[in-house]
Amino acid sequence: MDLERIEGFKDKRVLLLLLLVIVLGAGLRFWGLDIQSLWFDELGSWSAAHLVSFNRFVNAVLRYDVNPPGYYIFLHYWIKLGHSEVMLRIPSAIFGTLSIGVIFLLGCRIYSWREGLVSAVLMAVMKCPLYYSQEARAYSMLLLFSMLTVLLLMTIVDCLRNRNEVPVLLSGAYVMTAIVSCYVHYYGLYFIVLQGLVAAFYFCRSREGARLFLIMSAFIVVAYLPWILVLSSTSRPDSWIEMPKSIGICFNDLLIFMFNDSQVFVSAVLALYCFLILRSSAKMIRSCIWSELLLIGWLIVPFVGAWVFSKVSHITILSDRYLIISLPAAYLLLSRSVILLPLNFKIKSIGIAVLTAVLLCHLILGSGYYSTSVKQYTHPPVPGHFMP
């Protein structure tokens, strides 16, 4: 990190603001965990977590679900603390709260503490990450660990570039978070594969980098091999077959999903993205804007890959909630766009405060997030009878 980023990160005022944002985000996530009843998919999580036999658990997951067992295994041990709706959703709230801090660190590493704080505010008050932080499903965990893999991989790249060596603990931390991502959701596996394809071009420039890349990849593959063997020996249920819409409509729907289900917000975001691209293009003459390219790729490539596969195979794997892996890129790009606006720092600070207030009002008053029932009530199933 350059001097500006280090000084900003060590500034007590910045850390105090970050703490306030995290407290706000935690309050929004832990408040009202019991307002909504458990809905069908959450009941599937509840039922899977109660399966005590490993063989029954694996067979049930393979038969009824489309996701790897990582989240269910975690939940199996968590529910020993309690079985209520609140207890079932608390892990997602914790993962969601931690995501606020992690996206701040990502913003600091890619840009500066300013972008880190703005992106942390967005992560704290936006409806999308908040909703999945209050749902007993794997998406909040997937969001957190996908961000951690990017943060750790970028740190590894910096170590190779500056010192031509990487601490063992750092590479081990990346391998562990990557394995967790793969076992939490197949889009976690998809994201790690995309990371590997991008990292291979950089790591293989040097002998040390190539060796490290092969070792980390080998550990991840070996750790995931047991689940690959289980999948290969079991027939899967029929996939959901549906032709996706046009790529433009699907991408617009994804942005609506990420930005409070509001086309008005999406239009404003797209305008700011255009400003960022024009501003970055003007600078390309002097230097390559790798940060913007990285984030644009993070936002677009997973989506395009899923859309193309769904279009060609006629088996849709394209789902907005699966693409929560790209949510941090959308928020970081928006944060960068806001920081680059040609306004003085004081005006931008006031504008960010007003934006936070507007988002909170839209969340609580406009969309009635805590007062509108959106989940169908269903009685808990009998433990051991897995539901999809």
**Helical proportion?**
over 70%
Which segments are poorly predicted (pLDDT under 50) over 5 or more consecutive residues? 1-7, 377-388
Succession of helices and strands: HHHHHHHHHHHHHHHHH
Largest sheet: none
What does this structure look like?
- The chain has 388 residues and is mainly alpha-helical.
- It is built from 17 helices and no strands.
- α6 packs parallel to α9 and α9 packs parallel to α11.
- The relative contact order is 0.13.
- The model is unreliable at 1-7 and 377-388 (pLDDT under 50).
Helix-strand blueprint:
Blueprint: H1 3-10, H2 12-30, H3 40-49, H4 54-64, H5 70-78, H6 85-110, H7 113-125, H8 127-132, H9 139-163, H10 168-184, H11 186-203, H12 207-232, H13 247-258, H14 263-283, H15 290-313, H16 327-339, H17 345-366
Which properties best describe this structure?
single chain; 388 residues; 17 helices; mainly alpha
Q: Short description, anyone?
A:
The chain has 388 residues and is mainly alpha-helical. It contains 17 helices and no strands. It is globular and about 60 Å long.
